[in-house]
Design brief:
The chain has 293 residues and is mainly α. It has a single domain, classed as MetI-like (MetI-like fold), CATH 1.10.3720. It contains 16 helices and no strands. It starts with a helix and ends with a helix. The mean pLDDT is 86.
């Protein structure tokens, strides 16, 4: 805060801090407090609101843990989101290293533009493109049939299609933090390790990965939280047997009409995502200041 006042002066600094406070209060704090309020109250008809039954209760939250199907989908969403983060890391790390340490300036510019252009359209349209590509009579099955790789079309919809769609949808949220971290690594350190006889794997394990841990942690946190809270990809690319927890939340709000239970489910997901964030920071030995960079 003092840095903002020093850089912009007391008047403009006060305006900036005021706008930040209004944004945090209106867009972050108020919606979450409202969600907690809904989650801790029963779903009552209007005539009974404010009556003796309108009390704070954990019934909506405990319902999730007592419902085996919803509990199983919740747990599946968590580990599947972690799998999305891990798969995205495997895709992005080699690319980020090449862009930061080996590619020329022109190659880096072309690659970043090529990666960014598809994200000029919204997530729904990009997911629909994957839906068309993986459709039963879509281009992928047509190519595989034409080349003789398969004899009959394959139904790609399901957990695998959701995984592919999410990795593509959130690739930039993993790529850019890792790229920014590796770009600051002095190339002479890699060259010195290579001159001392270190293998490629040892160079990455002992030199590159420790240096890029803040970027890796940031990318994993972003990707995990986006995947856990995603609705479009599971709804379009998933099968009836591959439901996502966000679909259940959506159903409580807009089909079941039980906003209280939907808010309770959303609150549980939010708490777990926050727990994962702090666990990743602890595991990577990274603090929030390093992530903010």
């Amino acid at each position: 805060m003092s840095e903002i006042f020093r850089r912009f002066g007391r008047g403009p600094g006060t305006i900036i801090m005021g706008l930040v406070f209004i944004w945090l209060a209106g867009m972050v704090l108020a919606p979450n407090l409202t969600m907690i309020e809904y989650a801790l109250r029963p779903n009552l008809p209007p005539a009974r609101i404010g009556g003796p039954d309108d009390v704070y209760t954990l019934a909506n939250i405990l319902y999730l843990f007592g419902e085996p199907i919803h509990r199983a989908i919740f747990l599946k969403t968590i580990w599947a989101s972690a799998l999305v983060a891990f798969a995205t890391f495997l895709v992005c790390y080699p690319l980020a290293y090449w862009l930061a340490q080996q590619a020329s300036a022109n190659q880096t510019a072309v690659a970043l533009v090529a990666l960014t252009i598809p994200f000029w359209i919204n997530e729904v349209l990009r997911t629909l493109a994957w839906y068309i590509l993986l459709a039963f009579r879509g281009p992928l099955n047509a190519f595989l049939l034409a080349t003789g790789i398969i004899d009959t079309p394959i139904r790609w919809a399901g957990d695998g299609a959701v995984l592919v769609g999410m990795v593509y949808a959130y690739i930039l949220f993993m790529l850019f933090p890792i790229y920014n971290s590796i770009e600051s690594l002095d190339k002479s350190q890699v060259e010195a390790a290579r001159d001392l006889g270190a293998s490629v794997w040892r160079i990455h394990w002992r030199v590159v990965l420790p240096h890029a841990k803040a970027g890796i942690a940031t990318g994993c946190i972003f990707t995990f939280m986006l995947a856990a809270g995603s609705y479009v990809a599971p709804a379009l690319l998933g099968s009836p047997g591959s439901r996502w927890f966000t679909e259940i939340i959506y159903n409580w709000f807009f089909e079941g009409g039980d906003w209280n239970r939907g808010a309770a489910y959303a609150l549980v997901l939010l708490v777990l995502c926050l727990a994962v964030v702090f666990a990743v920071l602890k595991l990577a030995r990274v603090n929030l200041a390093e992530v903010a960079k």
